[in-house]
Amino acid sequence: MESLSEIAKACGFDACGVVPVDILSRERERLEQWVERGFHAGMNYMANNMEKRENPALLVEGARSVIVTLTNYYTPKLQLEGVPVVARYAYGKDYHRVVKDRLFKLYACLEETIGRKIMGRVFVDSAPVFEHEWARRAGLGWVGRNSLLINPRLGSYCFIGVIISDFEPSTYSLPEKRNFCGQCNRCVEACPTGALSAYEVNANLCISYNTIERKGEIPSEIKKKMGVRFFGCDACQDICPWNRKAVAHHIDEFSPNEWLMWMSREDWLSLDEETFRERFKNSPLLRPGLEQIKRNVK
Ligand code: SF4
Ligand code: SF4
């Protein structure tokens, strides 16, 4: 039988590992403390479904393993100088759909390989799952001071996709035990708003949260520090030495939207709803909607 990593590679993933299900009590405790301090800002969903987040068997009955995949989305291409800037993850089509389709493919390939139906579910950043910890346990990297998963070969510009199921492999992956941030503190120093500390992000201060998830006005102290960013922020990834060797992805769906690459501030502010929907069909920018995008650009 081909190894899981080989099958995952054939399905388009850049890395893959598998771990037995477990109860993640320590992670739940940390998350609860984070929520208690109000660091989740308006993301109330982070305070919900703690039991399910802690115990994957409550998400998938009879679950035996957690398969974790990484999909590289790095591109060296940049927007035209001087135009409003979006985070790289939003250059192309919405990753939720793209990664999910690949996970379904992997799921079907596994069923074919083992010769039986697998009972499980796929998850891409849309359910109460401790993706980073599962990825670490699956040997795919460590969680850096920027609170993101860092893979030593790929860096941090990766989407995490998960399959929780009754699949039982012949061997499990070995966890990444070390954190290779060492004495580095660059991401903490580079964060324009001081949102990072001790491997945690305070969403109230984070430009990503403020430009993508926050409803209503963005606080003036954040506005002053956003610079040219209007959708997400890559400052704590761009500075990370582990991203120096990042290689370009080969996924057509993530190719940069041509409008995004050159649209000026004036272009954005004069955009009408119909044109926005036409130009940004399937883009993550559709989620907050044009009104919120214009608020950010302003
Ligand atoms: S995304 Fe930007 S604002 Fe948020 S923690 Fe990273 S550097 Fe700071
Ligand atoms: S910039 Fe340095 S401290 Fe921050 S995640 Fe990268 S290696 Fe770790």
UniProtKB/TrEMBL annotation:
Top-level taxon of the source organism: Bacteria
Keyword Cytoplasm: yes
Cross-referenced Gene3D superfamilies: 3.30.70.20
GO biological process terms on file: tRNA queuosine(34) biosynthetic process
Keywords per UniProt: 4Fe-4S, Cytoplasm, Iron, Iron-sulfur, Metal-binding, Oxidoreductase, Queuosine biosynthesis, tRNA processing
Keyword Iron: yes
Enzyme class, first EC level, given as a word: oxidoreductase
EC id: 1.17.99.6
Gene Ontology molecular function: 4 iron, 4 sulfur cluster binding; epoxyqueuosine reductase activity; metal ion binding
Domain called 4Fe-4S ferredoxin-type: residue spans: 172-201
Stored InterPro entries: 4Fe4S_Fe-S-bd (IPR017896), 4Fe4S_Fe_S_CS (IPR017900), QueG (IPR004453), QueG_DUF1730 (IPR013542)
NCBIfam families, per the entry: tRNA epoxyqueuosine(34) reductase QueG
Protein name (record): tRNA epoxyqueuosine(34) reductase QueG
Gene source species: Butyricimonas faecalis
Underlying gene: queG
